[in-house]
Amino acid sequence: MTWKIKTYEELTKEQLYNIVRERINIFVVEQNCPYPELDDLDQGSFHLFYEKEGEIRAYCRILPKGLKYQQVSIGRVIVKEEYRRQGLASELMRNAITFVEEELQEQQIKIQAQDHLREFYGSFGFSPISETYLEDGIPHVDMIVGGL
């Protein structure tokens, strides 16, 4: 299984299109949550994904520190529905955290997690740093891993 990590400039038009399509399919359509998916943060982010036969099966974006938060952030974490419960989300997060630690030389990572995934992210060492709040109508919690 080959994971790819690319800057915005390195993505092909087809990869970018497929990534945005899957993010919209999951976050807007599947979760019935109309919100502005394109937020002008993709251009400064790293894009980590597993692609097979032109299909994006798992994806997240890694925002360098200072782009959105004081810390590096991992967001837009998705696994296409038919590939869930096969360990892809865990492998995706392990790869993202490794990239942050080894390539970006950062130890602290902040995420805005959907509250029902609190335990999943907790398994990677993330701890809540906020109360649960609504973001686009969905309960979220801010979480952090690494030195405070």
TrEMBL record:
InterPro entries documented for this protein: Acyl_CoA_acyltransferase, GNAT_dom
Superkingdom per UniProt: Bacteria
Pfam families, A to Z: Acetyltransf_10
GO molecular function: acyltransferase activity, transferring groups other than amino-acyl groups
Domain N-acetyltransferase residues, every copy: 6-148
PROSITE patterns recorded: GNAT
Entry keywords, A to Z: Transferase
Entry protein name: GNAT family N-acetyltransferase
